[in-house]
Amino acid sequence: MALERMQVTNHERWGNLVKTWSTGKNYLDDDNEYPIPTTVEEFKEQLAKAQVFMTVPDRYTKVKFVEQQMDTIVVRLPPAVAIADSEEKLSKPGATYPLPPFYKRLFNGMDPVIPEADKFKVHAERIGDYTISFCA
Amino acid sequence: MAVQNFADASSIRTSELYARASAPTAITAGFRHFLGTPAPAQRFRAFGIDPLESPSHYAELRGLMHRLSRRMDAVIKWPPHQARSAEHWENPFIPSGYTYLLQFIAHDLVHSAIPLSVAGGLGRGTTNARRTPLQMETLYGSGPVGSPHIYALDAPSDDRRTKLRLGRMRWKEKQPATGCPFRDIARTPAENVTGIDRSIAGVRVALTEALVADPRNDDHAVMSQLTALLALLHNGLVDIIRGREDDAGPNGRFGAAYKRFLCARGALTAIYHNIIRNDLMRRVIHPAIYASYCGPAPHFIDRLASANGLAIGDWEIPFEFSHGAFRFGHAMVRPEYQINDLSLHDLNNTLEKSSVNDPANMPLDETWMVQWSRFFEINGSTPNFSRRIGPHLSDGLGNDQIFPAFDETERVGLLYRDLLGAGLAGMWSVDALLAEIGDRRPHFIAMSRLLADRAYRVDQLREWLVSTRAYGALTDEDIETLSNDPPLPFFVLFEAMQQTEGLQLGLLGSIIVSEVIFGALASDPQSAGGGSVADQLDLISREFYLTNVLQDIPEISNMAQLVELTTEIAELQQAVPAFL
Prior knowledge:
The complex is a heterodimer of chains A (136) and B (580).
Chain A: E1 7-8, H1 11-23, H2 40-49, E2 54-55, H3 80-91, H4 102-106, H5 119-132
Chain B: H1 2-20, E1 31-32, H2 58-71, E2 90-95, H3 97-109, H4 116-119, H5 137-140, H6 143-146, E3 151-153, E4 161-164, E5 167-168, E6 182-184, E7 187-188, E8 209-210, H7 221-244, H8 253-284, H9 287-293, E9 317-318, H10 319-324, E10 336-338, E11 344-346, H11 347-352, E12 385-387, H12 414-424, H13 430-440, H14 442-446, H15 449-452, H16 454-466, H17 476-484, H18 488-500, H19 507-522, H20 533-544, H21 559-569
Parallel strand pairs in B: 1-9
Antiparallel strand pairs in B: 2-12, 3-4, 5-6, 7-8, 10-11
Helix pairs in contact in B: 2-12, 3-7, 7-8, 7-21, 8-19, 8-20, 9-19, 16-17
């Protein structure tokens, strides 16, 4: 069975929640408190408060927040099983590399088309990028 | 006769209105109340206040529905399945195609200009324009003469139209010389006097206009694909009829074409009714209630359930159905869909795929071509299953681009709209409705402790409301009012969760849905008897022809058979992308 992934509905709200956790300043523009969650249940409750509407698969039982320091290289290694799952999906003929919907805005409103020949290249590039980026 | 019937029907409604309501009640054209208009004391109240009588308390109502919708954001912990392999939240007895057949039926029963929740009250553009139920007006509009834009030309002179328009799909990476197959609904660009152009200059023209009878049939990709499926079947029926009819001669072509259209429409409508009765309702309705209504002459408790006796165009939908029980379909929507062998799309992408939301990426490409064995059980296929029915919706229905906030609560998503709309409609309270049904059918209510024992019901609701307090931050006062007077759409979901583990509707939801759906079927002379499709097609055919031109159509009792018939008569057995 394919690996269930976290799915974000409202990406801007999710980004603002991350910024809120990171800075302590409320970017959601509401009256709620958003302390950094210590459990998956608290994490989900805050997602609901912020109206992120993120689907969190049941297999998650723990949550870990990593506060990145400017002088420390943080390499977030994805689970090997997740890479294998993606590779298996992408190996199917016609399978496309999924991109979040907001990318379309950056592509001038067109659904981005990743050519069949390039999908593993893009997969590797995206893994590399997200593993070391500050995301800020 | 028709005038007499109209007068009789009106007098029933008028007398019920004055018998029950002490003050004039806001009723919007095309809508009525289930079992008659409730008296003020029988209506839903928030914090003990009737929203219809106190518009000044709307802010409290919005706040309460906002907090209840947030409570419903908490995921339901469903018990595991006994027999069939499925995720714990999935319903292995209702494949996802039925979710969208329900949506199609909703469009065939209700057509309002604006949701009641967004309008903010009755009578502000919320009239129901659908006045003949389940006649596939949502597919056919006003027919080839009244709605020519949705019909394809039959002749270069354009003197007749019989087939529904379809549009070519698109391949993402290639453009075949012979053109892509007609697998999407028809879509077209249009220049705007406002100067607005959503095209991508020099790259792609925006197809902002869906050429369908009902714009809601292009709400999202699965809905437009279901519409295309039904159009393909209609067009195949037209071909079958044309192959069997006599040559009408040059002066009779228009009349012959119109007969052909009416015969095909009648045939498809009969098939549709048979599927609703024998397939869809059997799956979603509680078995005890289904047994009471599925026969040829059910005994309705709502005197106006069947449009029998009403003049054509005088039918009305009960608010308790349109803004109450029938909202259960929203709880069946999945978070993602395996559209075909190659493509899995999440709900957000699926909801975005329409001419309104994404015109520059229309027509739909091959990743959106629905393979119907993924949506119905066909030849042992394992389809996408719908969600179990309960007080929780998929996260994608909280999309803030598609369902943005519209009032001071800043609440986004479909759920809040459902709850608020119910609060504004002046509907029966659950308690009063159960008492009224109990007077007429005591054995229905006696089947369930949740319905029969008020104290137990209040306790069960209270227990659920307090169980996840962090969601919604419901106050003690909120919990008290909601457990004593729950909004109907919420209670119908709660009841399904409690009584059937979300696999079907509970008893109250089943009664309301059965009264309206079976009532609508009973009002159709062809479908009322519930006889075989073959017999009905014979009758329809002989209305227009000397012989049965539909004799080769097999018995169709479920959606799987409809898809198989469409595959055959539209010659899509080897279609790429796969149709079946």
